[in-house]
Design brief:
GO molecular function: 4 iron, 4 sulfur cluster binding; lyase activity; metal ion binding
Shape: globular
Pfam families: Aconitase
CATH architecture of the largest domain: 2-Layer Sandwich
Strand content: 15-25%
GO biological process, one term: carboxylic acid metabolic process
Subunit structure: Heterodimer of LeuC and LeuD.
Radius of gyration: 21 Å
Strand order of the largest sheet: 4-3-2-5-6
Protein name: 3-isopropylmalate dehydratase large subunit
C-alpha cells in the first residue's frame, strides 16, 4: 500500500484501504484558525454539539494577529470565548501561523492523521502526517466525534531528478512544476515526493514543497525522508510496486522563477520578467516565513538599503522564528536596510490585515498564491518569487535578471542551502 493507504487503514482499523473506498477514520489532532473558529462555534450552537476530547484540539489566531477593524476584532473575541466555553486551548495571539506551529509543537508526526481548518494543512506532509485541510462543517463534526470520513485517494509518486541551479530554491522548483503540469493530474490525489534532491533538503525546504502541493490540486502529500528528519519517517521508493502512478521531473539547471498574471501556473525564469518598478515586497506566509527564508533575505540586504519608494514587509512565521532571527542579527539587518518587520502570523498574505497594497501596485511576494485580490485589493498585482529573488527585488526596485542576481550575490553565499546554523522549525 502507499503511505496514504497505510495511514488510512491504520486509522480505520482495517487491514487494507482500497483506493476509491469510503472509510471512517479516527483523528489524532485537529487545529483551526481564527478565520474559521467563529463559523465552527455557530455550527456547535445550531446543532447542539459538544467537543469530545479537548486535549487533541488547538485554536490559533494567525490571520488577524493585529485586527484591522471592529468586525475582525469581534470575530477573534468570539473565537476566544468559544474556546473558553469548550475548554479548548487557544494558542496565544502572536505565536505564529498554525501550520508552522504544528511543526514546531509536533502536532505533525509520522503516521498521524491531522485535520486543519485551512487548505495549507498539507504542510504536514513534510513530516509524513496525513494532514488534511477541511471546511468548518467537517472540522466541527470531527471535534465532536473524534472521527471523520474519507474517500481513499489514488497516489501519484513524483521523482525529482537532477539539481537546480545554485540560486534556485524549493519555491522555484514548485513554481516550475506548477507551470508545467495541470491540476487535473493531481485533483483529490496523494502526492509522494521523492528523489535525491528531495532527500537532500532540510525541514524548511521540505515544508515548502509540502505546503504548495495543494496548489497542484492534491488532497494530501508526503515528502520522502530528508536531512535531519524525525525518526519514523520513511524513504519513499520511486520504484515501489504499490499501485501508485509515477512521474519523473527533471530539475537540472532550473533557474529562479517568477509567477505573474493572477495565476500561480505562470512560472518562468526571472530572465523573462519585465524590469518594471515594484511598489512592495512581502516576505512571509506559510510557504516562506521560516528562519532560513528570513536569513536568506537578511544576508543579501546586509550593509545595503532597499530601493527608494519601495516598501519591504517581513513577517516571521512564528514567534520562535522571530526570536531566532533576532539572535542571528537578521532583524537588525532588515530594519537597518529599511524593512518593516511585523509580528508573527500570516501577515498581508490573506488580505485581512495590513499591509494592503494600493490600486495599481505591483507586489513581489514569497506567498503561495497570487490570485486576483489575494492581499485585499483586486486592483493590485502580485508576483510570486523565492526569498532570494524577493530580497534582490527589494534592493533593485524591480525583479532581477539572472545577471543582476549573480552580481548581487558575488560577495556573499546566500544560496538557499547556506547557513545550516539556521536550524529547521522543529526538533527531530
Amino acid at each position: 500500500m502507499t503511505l496514504v493507504q497505510q495511514i488510512i487503514a491504520d486509522h480505520a482499523r482495517q487491514a487494507r484501504a482500497e483506493v476509491g473506498s469510503i472509510v471512517e477514520v479516527e483523528v489524532d489532532w485537529i487545529y483551526a484558525q481564527d478565520g474559521n473558529v467563529p463559523t465552527i462555534a455557530r455550527l456547535f450552537e445550531l446543532h447542539g454539539l459538544h467537543v469530545g476530547d479537548t486535549s487533541r484540539i488547538r485554536f490559533v489566531c494567525d490571520h488577524s494577529v493585529l485586527a484591522p477593524d471592529r468586525l475582525m476584532a469581534s470575530r477573534v473575541k468570539d473565537a476566544e470565548r468559544f474556546a473558553a466555553r469548550q475548554g479548548i486551548e487557544m494558542v496565544p495571539v502572536g505565536s505564529g501561523i498554525s501550520h508552522l506551529l504544528a511543526a514546531e509543537q509536533q502536532w505533525f508526526r509520522p503516521g498521524r492523521l491531522v485535520l486543519g481548518a485551512d487548505s495549507h494543512t498539507c504542510t504536514g506532509g513534510a513530516f509524513q502526517s496525513l494532514a488534511l485541510g477541511m471546511g468548518a462543517t467537517d472540522i466541527a463534526c470531527a471535534m465532536a466525534e473524534g472521527r471523520t470520513w474519507l474517500r481513499v485517494p489514488e497516489t501519484v509518486r513524483i521523482e525529482l531528478r537532477g539539481r537546480p541551479s545554485r540560486h534556485a530554491s524549493p519555491k522555484d522548483v514548485m513554481l516550475h512544476i506548477l507551470a508545467t503540469n495541470t491540476p487535473e493530474a493531481f485533483l483529490y490525489r496523494s502526492i509522494e515526493w521523492c528523489g535525491e534532491w528531495i532527500e537532500s533538503l532540510n525541514a524548511e525546504g521540505a515544508a515548502t514543497v509540502a505546503n504548495m502541493s495543494v496548489e497542484l490540486g492534491a488532497k494530501c502529500c508526503f515528502v520522502s525522508a530528508w536531512q535531519g528528519c524525525p525518526s519514523g519517517m520513511m524513504r519513499i521508493d520511486p520504484d515501489a510496486e504499490d499501485g501508485a502512478r509515477k512521474m519523473v521531473i527533471q530539475l537540472d539547471g532550473l533557474q529562479p522563477q517568477f509567477a505573474d498574471g493572477h495565476a500561480i501556473s505562470t512560472g518562468r525564469s526571472i530572465d523573462k520578467a519585465d524590469r518594471e518598478p515594484v511598489d512592495c515586497v512581502f516576505v512571509g506566509s506559510c510557504a516562506n516565513s521560516r528562519l532560513e527564508d528570513i536569513g536568506t533575505v537578511a544576508r543579501l540586504l546586509r550593509g545595503r538599503s532597499i530601493a527608494p519608494g519601495l516598501r519591504l514587509v517581513v513577517t516571521p512565521g512564528t514567534r520562535n522564528i522571530h526570536l531566532q532571527a533576532l539572535q542571528h542579527g537578521h532583524v537588525e539587518t532588515l530594519i537597518a536596510a529599511g524593512a518593516l518587520v511585523t509580528p508573527a502570523g500570516c501577515g498581508p498574505c490573506v488580505g485581512t490585515q495590513g499591509h494592503v497594497p494600493a490600486d495599481g501596485d505591483l507586489v513581489v511576494s514569497t506567498m503561495n498564491r497570487n490570485f486576483l485580490g489575494r492581499m485585499g485589493n483586486p486592483h493590485a498585482r502580485i508576483v510570486l518569487v523565492s526569498p532570494l529573488v524577493a530580497a534582490a527585488t527589494a534592493l533593485l526596485g524591480h525583479i532581477p535578471s539572472l545577471a543582476e542576481l549573480e552580481d548581487l550575490t558575488l560577495t556573499d553565499d546566500v544560496s538557499p542551502d547556506h547557513d545550516r546554523a539556521d536550524q529547521p522549525e522543529r526538533a527531530s
